[in-house]
Specification:
Layout: E1 9-13, H1 19-29, E2 35-38, H2 40-56, E3 60-67, H3 71-82, E4 88-92, H4 95-105, E5 111-115, H5 123-128, H6 135-149, E6 153-155, H7 161-168, E7 173-176, H8 195-201, E8 205-208, H9 210-213, H10 218-234
Parallel strand pairs: 1-2, 1-8, 2-3, 3-4, 4-5, 5-6, 6-7, 7-8
This protein binds cytidine-5'-monophosphate (C5P).
């Protein structure tokens, strides 16, 4: 691993409808010490309680709630979560939203990540959503805004790591979804790369959902991704 480089970590997206299945899967995977990501699907069906139990058990939890609202609502929402004990929380990368989230986080240890452009979107989707520029330029602009706002890191696709890193500097975190081991179906993701490629490009965290959660043997799938990540950091 290059000197000064952080060891990249695996984030497992517990994207499951069934809380008990999610809890059992987290238990099975806990020995590998991933970060457990709880998003919309699970958060609204008891997932925040699971997050609390995982935190009490010493696991790292990422609340992927992708907050975006008027500044006061974002600030107070983040303030409510600041003492929860999660390691990471997402907000959308709009300047007002990011500034409000930073104010709400205060002096807590919660790290805030700004979602630049969802990895399910390509240039056509960006145009359909009314974006002025294509995906690459929008990510670069939002990364520059994030750097101004005091946010701790960005969520972007692996292909945007180099530009995002230039905009946010060496210390902030780059969290990369749209990860697919070779031969895996992309599903609704449009900007995908393998674990090896994303690590080689400099991701700090890889977010993996379906390739682990939907695998016949999720523990073996996670172990294979972790060993691919380790091998890529040794190069
Ligand atoms: O199943 P898959 O590996 O595609 O899951 C990716 C996870 O990362 C999902 O939980 C999704 O919500 C999340 N995510 C994403 N793209 C972003 C931000 C988060 O895919 N820009």
């Amino acid at each position: 691993m290059a000197p000064g480089r952080r060891q990249p970590r695996l984030i497992v997206a517990l994207d499951l409808a069934d809380l008990r299945r999610a809890e059992a899967l987290a238990e099975q995977l806990s020995g590998h010490r991933p970060v457990f990501k709880i998003g919309h699907q699970l958060a609204y069906t008891g997932g925040l309680g699971l997050a609390e139990r995982l935190i009490r058990a010493g696991q790292d939890v990422f609340l992927d709630l992708k907050l975006h609202d008027i500044p006061r609502t974002v600030e107070e929402g983040v303030r409510s979560l600041a003492g929860f004990g999660a390691s990471l929380l997402t907000v959308h990368a709009y300047p007002q939203t990011m500034r409000a989230a930073v104010a709400g986080r205060g002096g807590s240890g919660l790290k805030l990540l700004a979602v630049t452009v969802l990895t399910s979107m390509d240039d056509t989707d960006a145009a359909a959503a009314g974006y002025r520029a294509g995906v690459a330029q929008t990510v670069a602009e939002r990364a520059a805004d994030a750097a101004q706002s005091g946010i701790d890191g960005l969520v972007c696709a692996a292909g945007e790591i180099a530009g995002a890193r230039r905009a946010i500097g060496p210390d902030r975190l780059l969290v990369v979804p749209g990860i697919r081991p070779a031969g895996e179906a992309a599903g609704d993701q449009k900007r995908v790369m393998t674990p090896r490629e994303a690590v080689a490009l400099g991701a700090d965290y890889l977010v993996v959902g379906r390739p682990i959660v939907g695998a016949p043997d999720p523990v073996a799938a996670a172990a294979a991704i972790l060993s691919e990540m380790e091998e890529a950091t040794r190069r």
